[in-house]
């Protein structure tokens, strides 16, 4: 049907056309020869990345951050959704839900600015509080150790409202008669949550888990880039993820082959992870698979 | 009577405790979510010397609108950025929404043979990607879109997620309705325009909002493709430049005849942020209901 044509053209141009470009990973790119006529160098780019330790550092950071996001993110979202369901004051539920959803709605540039507002050495709120308590101010932007914590908290701040709506909607689909029956049988809130609500949320959780596992090598570029800043190399050991590296190799160093090599590694490895995750789920509970 | 009231939802001690914990945790977390916004707002109204003395504060110690005066002293840049962002958002949302709705409808038609193949064609792009480097080269070298607003407009038109969302909305329309229209001799496009579109208004509102917010907050493609020699850049990129570079502040100080050392550097960043974000936040209470609706349908039924 003709009606799909615009969308097909769109994805063809925006998504499929760049794919052969991954060939860049195997060449020594120069502008005059272009993408497909630059000299072929085989695996040299990958060898360089492995020997310099870059690939290992990027992989470790990207996966570690994503695992933390998945565990703490889903945990907090489920907790908040379940508690929301227990509350009885309607206006309170609606009001707090709106407030929690708000951070999802703003741009990463503003998120970065807010973080700066709190963390800046001279004027930041954090150091104002520390000083008023008589403690020494912290040099946040040159201390790599605290960044995993800052990034995780910002992530939770931004995504919990959105995610808990998803889980809350799933709970709404639960037949309320089941809950009432459980109460008549004398189950208290904890027991109802443990034996009815949590098992009910399992399929939603698995689908979302599959999605996030599929993207485990994809970072949250906007978050990292705006929080850390483009060139704060003092923090790279603990904050550099695949996408920030690729972006730098494109915009600052013009090292197209290295960026492409990392992208190719990310796409192939990531694809492998989704397929494996989907296969595992198919084995365990066939009704919950993505495809 | 007594026994029925005792059976009302969760009147035992544990349930009351869970509820109490719920009120406390959710209340605190909600507060934690909005306080940063007040920090930005408060700082934007604080005099610069108070900031240098006491740092940022939630509540302005001495109210001052000086930063806003400077921001609007030279309104050309910010008005230009607003115009660019508003245009891109309106045009992009209209085109994107139309294509997403059409595709979602077509992919939902049971008599459309290749719908599964096309669905996979679209879904596959979330699994495997060429990456930003080839994308950049194609946009700049092949299509020559460097410093062209199209490079910001085009990539934001749609995502596979929105098409899937539209599909599950259309699914809820009884198939008999389109069948009978077909019997009456209406063509596919006619059915889409005069039947499907009016019947999926809530869906269109939700998807349109997702696209529109995407455009309003867009800074990534703008940063990739629009160079500093463009006079008007989208709002978020404008904000990014105010926040990260001193150039803007220096230019404003020349324009408004103020010594650079007297410029309210810190409060100006916050004031620009308020101006760039404010309208969306004011708009938010009206539209968030659609968002919640959309996530509910799109995410759960997938």
UniProtKB/TrEMBL annotation, chain A:
Entry's Gene Ontology BP terms: transmembrane transport
InterPro entries: ABC_transporter_permease, MetI-like, MetI-like_sf
CDD domains: TM_PBP2
Membrane spanning residue stretches: 7-26, 63-87, 99-119, 146-174, 195-217, 258-281
Signal sequence bounds: none
Subcellular location: Cell membrane
Ranges where the ABC transmembrane type-1 domain occurs: 59-277
GO cellular component terms, semicolon-separated: plasma membrane
Keywords of this entry: Cell membrane, Membrane, Transmembrane, Transmembrane helix, Transport
The UniProt record lists the keyword Transit peptide: no
Main location per the UniProt record: membrane
Keyword Kinase in record: no
Membrane topology classification: Multi-pass membrane protein
PANTHER family assigned: ABC TRANSPORTER PERMEASE PROTEIN (PTHR30193), LACTOSE TRANSPORT SYSTEM PERMEASE PROTEIN LACF (PTHR30193:SF44)
Membership in a protein family: Belongs to the binding-protein-dependent transport system permease family.
Name of the protein in question: Sugar ABC transporter permease
Source organism (scientific name): Cohnella candidum
Phylogenetic lineage: Bacteria, Bacillati, Bacillota, Bacilli, Bacillales
UniProtKB/TrEMBL annotation, chain B:
Predominant localisation class: membrane
Coiled-coil zones: none
Source taxon at top rank: Bacteria
Keyword terms: Cell membrane, Membrane, Transmembrane, Transmembrane helix, Transport
Domain ABC transmembrane type-1: 82-287
Cellular location(s): Cell membrane
Sequence similarity: Belongs to the binding-protein-dependent transport system permease family.
UniProt protein name: Carbohydrate ABC transporter permease
Natural source organism: Cohnella candidum
Lineage of origin: Bacteria, Bacillati, Bacillota, Bacilli, Bacillales
């Amino acid at each position: 049907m003709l009606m799909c044509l615009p969308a097909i053209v769109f994805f063809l141009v925006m998504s499929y056309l760049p794919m052969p470009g991954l060939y860049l990973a195997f060449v020594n790119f120069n502008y005059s020869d272009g993408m497909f006529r630059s000299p072929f160098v085989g695996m040299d780019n990958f060898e360089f990345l492995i020997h310099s330790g870059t690939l290992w550092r990027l992989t470790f950071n990207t996966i570690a951050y994503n695992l933390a996001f998945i565990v703490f993110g889903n945990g907090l979202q489920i907790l908040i959704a379940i508690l929301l369901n227990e509350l009885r004051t309607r206006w309170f539920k609606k009001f707090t839900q709106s407030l929690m959803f708000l951070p999802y709605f703003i741009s990463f540039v503003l998120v970065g600015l807010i973080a700066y507002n709190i963390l800046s050495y001279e004027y930041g709120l954090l150091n104002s509080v520390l000083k008023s308590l008589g403690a020494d101010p912290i040099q946040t932007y040159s201390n790599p150790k605290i960044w995993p914590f800052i990034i995780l908290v910002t992530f939770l701040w931004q995504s919990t409202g959105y995610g808990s709506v998803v889980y809350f909607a799933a709970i709404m689909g639960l037949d309320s008669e089941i809950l009432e029956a459980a109460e008549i049988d004398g189950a208290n809130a904890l027991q109802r949550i443990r034996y009815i609500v949590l098992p009910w949320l399992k399929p939603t959780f698995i689908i979302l888990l599959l999605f996030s596992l599929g993207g485990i090598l994809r970072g949250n570029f906007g978050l990292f880039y705006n929080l850390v800043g483009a060139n704060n190399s003092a923090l790279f050991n603990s904050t550099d993820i695949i996408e920030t590296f690729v972006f730098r190799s494109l915009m600052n160093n013009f090292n197209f082959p290295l960026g492409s090599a990392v992208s190719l590694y990310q796409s192939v490895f990531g694809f492998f992870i989704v397929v494996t995750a989907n296969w595992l789920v198919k084995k365990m509970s066939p009704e919950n698979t993505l495809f | 009577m007594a026994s029925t009231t005792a059976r009302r939802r969760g009147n035992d001690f544990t349930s009351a405790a869970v509820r109490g914990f719920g009120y406390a945790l959710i209340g605190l977390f909600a507060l934690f979510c909005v306080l940063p916004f007040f920090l930005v707002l408060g700082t934007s109204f604080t005099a610069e010397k108070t900031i240098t003395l006491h740092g940022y504060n939630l509540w302005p110690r001495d109210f001052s609108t000086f930063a806003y005066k400077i921001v609007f002293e030279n309104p050309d840049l910010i008005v230009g950025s607003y115009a660019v962002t508003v245009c891109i958002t309106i045009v992009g949302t209209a085109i994107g929404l139309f294509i997403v709705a059409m595709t979602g409808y077509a992919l939902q038609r049971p008599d459309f043979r290749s719908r599964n193949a096309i669905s996979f064609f679209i879904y596959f792009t979330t699994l495997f990607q060429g990456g930003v480097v080839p994308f950049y080269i194609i946009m700049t070298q092949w299509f020559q879109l460097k410093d062209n607003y199209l490079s910001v407009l085009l990539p934001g038109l749609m995502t596979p997620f929105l098409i899937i969302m539209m599909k599950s909305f259309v699914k809820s329309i009884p198939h008999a309705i389109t069948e009978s229209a077909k019997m009456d001799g209406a063509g596919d496009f006619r059915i889409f325009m005069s039947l499907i579109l009016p019947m999926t208004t809530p869906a269109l509102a939700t998807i349109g909002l997702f696209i529109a917010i995407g455009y309003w907050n867009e800074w990534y493609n703008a940063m990739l493709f629009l160079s500093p020699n463009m006079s008007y850049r989208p709002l978020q990129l404008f904000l990014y430049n105010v926040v990260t570079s001193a150039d803007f502040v220096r230019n404003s100080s020349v324009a408004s005849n103020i010594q650079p050392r007297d410029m309210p550097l810190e409060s100006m960043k916050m004031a620009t942020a308020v101006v760039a974000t404010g309208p969306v936040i004011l708009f938010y209470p009206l539209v968030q209901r659609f968002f919640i609706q959309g996530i509910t349908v799109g995410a759960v039924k997938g």
